[in-house]
Each structure stands twice: as structure tokens, then as C-alpha cells.
Amino acid sequence: MEKKKLTKELLDSVRHIEGFPIGRDEDIIALSAPPYYTACPNPFIQDFIKEHGKPYDATDDYHREPFAADVTEGKNDPIYNAHSYHTKVPHKAIMRYILHYTEPGDIVFDGFCGTGMTGVAAQMCGNPDPAFKTHLVQEMGSVKWGTRKAILCDLSPVATFIAYNYNNPVDVEEFEREANRILLEVEKEYGWMYQTQHTFNGKILKDADGNPVLGRINYTVWSDVFVCPQCSEEVIFYNAAVEKEKGKVNKDFLCPHCKAMLNKRNMERAWVTKFDKDINETIRHAKQVPVLINYSLGNKRFEKDPEGFDHDLIDKIESMDIPYWYPTERFMFKGQRWGDTWRSGIHAGITHVHHFYTKRALFSLAKVFSLIEKVDIDLKRYILYTFEQSILGMSKIARYVPTHYSQVNQYLSGTLYIGSQVVDVSLGYIIGNKIRNLKGILNKMRQFTKKDVVIANQSMNSFKFLNDNSCDYVFTDPPFGDNLMYSELNFFWEAWLKVITNNNQEAIINKSQGKGLLEYRLIMDNCFKEMYRILKPGRWLTMVFHNSKNSIWNAIQDALLKAGFIVADVRVLNKKQGSFKQITTTSAMKEDLVVSAYKPKANFIVKFIAKAGTEEGVWEFVKQHLEQLPVVVTSDNLIEVLAERQNYMLYDRMVAFHLQNGYTIPMGAAEFYMGLHQRFPERDGMYFLPQQVPEYEQKRALAQGVGQLSLFIQDERSAIQWMRSKLENKLQTLAELTPQFLKEAKYVRWEKQLELSEILDQNFLQDEDGSWYVPDINKQTDLEKLREKALLREFELYKEGKGKLKLFRSESVRAGFKFCWKNKEYHTIVKVAQRIPESIIQDDVSLLMYYNNALTRTEG
After folding, report:
1. What per-residue string of b and e applies to 729-742 under the rule 16 or more CB within 10 Å gives b?
2. 542-569, pLDDT tens digit by residue?
3. pTM: predicted TM-score of the whole model, two decimal places
4. What is the DSSP code string of 161-193?
5. Which of 82, 225, 563, 805 could form an S-S bond across to 529 if both were Cys, CB 3.0 to 4.6 Å?
């Protein structure tokens, strides 16, 4: 694309789009680098698609199985660590997915791009470093190298700004020269603020002329001050609670005045009241005093207690006015409690951005930003990107960690926590090494060009500049519930950038914004619908998920399915070992998840709609779903049992697809299992298309055997699957099964537990010797029909009762909901669902789907 100009008229044309940021037009324009990056919805994306996109061709032969290989990728790569944003997925991990699912020149989309690692990965596919390239070839086999194009989007202005600079490096020599010039300019004007008198054995050393020897301050430690509840004297926390030699902070400590045993929890803070000229108000904030100075003299570092010179210097700085601009905006929401990251015992009195800084830090940062305004436009954004990385590290959220040598960026990630010991660092201390590191990174990224990545700043739920079926692959790492309060955490950076997140459509659970699980799910519904719309049929979406709450996991699954995606593989990323494992339950895990889902091909949708609600439609769905699943996955020379190919998971996927598309489910589990057995070949408990069997059998013959699928017993359904796995290869008696079952069973609290003998009676058969075994498909069908009748009888009790159900049989509710859905008894589904505590409904993706879809139909 040719170089474009972002005008106020163009801003007016996109101002109505959700997520248009908060800021003056001139500041949005100044932050932007059109056409490849705009700090607002990007009106030039259609030009990018016209130049690089390939129209969707329904006859193409594209086919990929879900990427199911183990991935080991740490977070120690210099590029990954170039910026300390809250969350990132390593670009080298993303590269594997892009290389697997796409061809060179394909368009990759990330609607929650954060710092732009997807763009970095797309470009790195063109020319990775030689060692990593060799490693990937050994790991993945045949790889088609070549740059992919990327379209990136995020709601946060600072995220998209970082993403732009990650993906658009500048001239290395010019950058280094300009960054060091700015450091030198700040040192010339304000270096005196970071001087201290050098002492030895408590005495001030002097030079040959009799003047005190001055050292250069690296950082000053400030400590909270509390009031002893016994003697009412002030207690400096650092002096009373910290063992300096060990760097240990004691929870309990003695009052230096009355020797009473103290703890922070039973002490009141000491307070300071002063007039704030910036907001023309008298403010009251927690008292902190300087307690330790770390400084350099030549190449040596020293530490000392603050003395008269240091206190006088701080007083002088406090009395001066800052001659340059710095942000004084009220922090987020009006009032003392400004967001969900606000804590009463920590942030009392802190209401505006500048309250998070010492006066000395504000002098330095304000000078830096005034100098950046004069930098040449082509270099200005990268210089700003470099120095904005000191915004958090120079604030009061930077904790003093005595056990660490470096005190750079020692803030608690994902929070705005202000510790009882904070570290006030100098600009040179925090940014000097950063400049050297970025120089090395820029050398690694010389092959990047501005033409390969385009970035927009807006909400993902209304991406109007992309046409249907225009992207070849989606990789995304969306926000998950209340994990991180992005707009609050980013407000620091964005206040300095003068462009702030419009969080009206922020996908988050946040009390201050009035957003709960429902609001979060509705926003995610719209976001995934947009991703589905712009993705080409038959192509893939990869989603990384980080949250241990079942309700969030199920909300995400529901949003994916409602959009039209079909999940083909879910794995756990074990960060310590860097490996993936299958997920075989609907519950979320404590580790990160990687979800692989596809958009069905257009020809399938046409066929399915013609047969929807019939048995033919069921088998059409199963056929295309089996085609998308991996045929063979091996681990340690063992064949992995793929849960997605087992009968119960295929049934679940079929039901979910019908349900989310509003169609009647034409058969029960018994009929489905029988039909599956009759139509598709089965190997090792998994079902295949006929043409897939030779490949499976060939690799099966070369493997040592078939691995065991890990199952967790948390309800009746998982108990049945667990027993099936135990009895498929070996007959066992009730006495033999009982101790194994009791060891593994960890039922959720609301699940009505059947006796093991009842589960066996309803689902398995017993021989003459009393050993239980898995019935053949014909007898299994008969058992399923009998069991379904029993489940529906119990469901009738739930229909007739009143009040909340504290204990119930989930399988009965599922069977009842399915029956009601088939007979269009939507009000019954809603009535019973409302008897079940909301948290339980949110924790079960199957019940949640029935309830949400029935609710939609009854509300109309």
C-alpha cells in the first residue's frame, strides 16, 4: 500500500465503530502510522486485503488436521522480553501453528493481538534464525517457509502501539544515537536530582578540593510508615520489619519505641496532607519516607542510609514546579474507588495518575516526553515505545525486592499493587540496558517490512472493514473473565500516550464497569461471530485459554459453538514441561489450554441445512467432523487415544451443533452409537472414515502400543467412561472395581452419587462368574434405552418440584433437556434450569447450551 494520511475527516468516518478510543483527534493522528497502523479503527484495511488477499474458492483442496504435536517454548527469548506487557504467547510457539495451518502469503488474523506476537510470528516464518529453523524442520518435518501477512486488532491503544513497534523496526544506528541523546539531555537538566554524597564508615568523603564526592543514584527505597497501636509513635516499616543482611521481611516485628509485638494488619498508617496544585485540591495520602540509597561511583556500587543532604534534596525537588507536560487525569472512574484493581488499604488517597509517582520521577519522565515530541516522525514512535517502558518501572507500583540484584521493573504483574517498600529508580538505571537490548533485537528483525502487518485499534465485535471469508487463519489469545483488568492496568501507559481505551465493549468481568459473566459472554459471543464471519470456510482458529474457572471456560466454549465453530481438539499446555495433553472433560484445568476449532466447509453447510433435523443430517455432520480430526497422534512411541474420535464425544459434538443452530436432535445416544458402529470403522475405541483406516493401521503396527486415556471421575457420565476403559480389555468383579473407583472418584458437590452397583447394572453386563463386561453394540443400545427411560422418570421429579436443587443427577437433567428440546418444551427447560443454582449451570457447558438457547426462544 502507498503511504496514506489519516485526517480528521477519516476519523469521523470511523468514529461510530465500537472501541474508538478516548483522546483528541490530533493525539490519535500523532500516535498513528497510516496506512499500516492507526490508533483507531483502521480505514485502510480493505486496501491491504485487496493487495494481499486471495478470494475464497469453494473448490480449493485445502485440508489440515488440528495441530496436535507437543510444543516446548520458553519465555526467555529476547524478542519476547522486549516489552513487559501483562500477557504474551511466545512468537516461536505461534510460528508452529501458522506454519501448520497456512501457506506463504496467507492472511493471519488476531482480534486480541496484545503486543502483536502473532504478527511477529507471521513475519518470522519468512526468515527465522538458522538454529530455530533447523529445530522446526526436525520437529515438524516438511515446512513451507515464507512470510505470512497479518491483520492485528486490539481494544487497547497501548497494546496496538506496542504491536506496531514490535512489527516495524527502525534503523538501528539512528535509534541508538537518538535514544542516548535523550538520556544525555535529561541527565544535563535533572542529573543533579539523582546525586548523593559518597560516604565511608559513616563519614562523607571529599575530593582534593575539599568538596564532597558525589555518587550517581541508581535507586532510592521508600518505606511505609505506620503508627504503633500501643505507644502511638510512628514506625518506619523497613527499619522495624526488614532483616537487611538476609533481605527477609518479617510479618511480626517489635516496635522500636515500646517493644510491643506488631503486625501490619493491626497497625494504622501514618498520613500526610498536602495541597495538590495540579488538581487544585488538598489531598491525603499514605506517608512514605526514604530509607536506602543505592548509588554508583565509577564502576562500583554502594548503599547508604539517607542523610541530611538527601532529605534536603528531596525537599527542594518537592518545592519546584515541573515545566513540562505530564498526565494529571483522574484514574479511571470517578470517586475514591477507581476500579477493580483498587484496594482500600493500598490506594487510599490515590485518585489521579500523577499520584503514582514521586516528584523526581515526574520531572524525568516529563522531560523525556517533551524531547520525544521533537524527534523525526519516522523514528519518533520507536523512541516513544522505548521510553514508555519506564512508565510503570518508575512509578510507586515498583516494589523493592531486597533479594534481587536488579530493581528494574519489579512491579507485581497484573496488578497496581503498591508495596510497603517501593523503589524509586533513575531513568538511566531503568532504560540504559533496555536501549542496548533493543539494539540487538532490531538487528534480528531487519527483514521485517511495514507492508506485511496492518493494525487496528477497536473492538473485535464489529470488524466492518473485513469482508466475509477474507482471512486464511485465526490465532487469538482473548481476555478471560476477571483474569486481568486490562483497561485499568493500561491506563498508566495510555495517559502518557494521550489516547485511552474505550472500555465500553471490553470483554471482561469487572464490578466497576458493571460487567458480570453474562455481559462478558455476550461480548465474546459477538467477537467470535466476527471471527467466524471473516474466516474462510474449512479453515482453522487456534485459541489460547488461561483461566481455571469452569464458568469462564464454558462461556468461551458456548461462544465458540454459538458462532458456528466446531471444536476438534483441546489440549493442556504444561508450562513447566512445555507439553500438551488432551482435555477429556468439560471442566477447565489450572494449566493453559489450546483450543483448535474449524469453520465448516460451505458444501457441508449446504448439505446439512437440506437434511437438518434428520438422521441423514447427523451422519453428514459426523462424516465431515471425522475428516477434520487428526488420524494418528503418537507420544513416546504410543498411539494416543483421541477422545474426539470416541462415540460419546462425537455424540456431544453432534448434539451441540444441532442445538446451537436451532435444529431438533433427531436421535438419542443409543441410536447414535448403533448407527456409528454400523457406518464407520472402529479401531481401539475410536471411529474413522474408511479412507483413514489404512494410515492408522500402518502407524499402529509401528508403535509400541496404545496409551491410556486419562479420565477424571466427577459425575455419573465420567464414571461410566472410566468403567468402560477399565472393562474393555479385562473383565472385573464389583469387588475388584470398588477400591479403584473410590480412589479416583471426586464428585462435584451437587452431583447425586449412585452406588457403583447401580451404575454397573444400568450400563454393563455381568457373566455367570459375577464379572462385569462391556456389552456389544446391540445390547448396549437396549441398555441405553432403558437407562434413558429411568433418567426421564427422575427428570419428572425435577419438573414438578419447587425451590433450588442442591443435589441432583446431571445425566437426568441432560436427558430431560434433550427430550424437551426435541418437543419444543422450551419453558420447561428454563423452569428446571432456574431451579439449579446459576453457578452450576455456568459450570456445565451442556446444560448451559440448552438453557441459553431455550431462554432465547422463550423471550421472543
Report:
1. eebbeeeebeeebe
2. 998 876 677 888 888 889 999 999 999 8
3. 0.87
4. HHHHHHHS---HHHHHHHHHHHHHHHHHHHGGG
5. 563
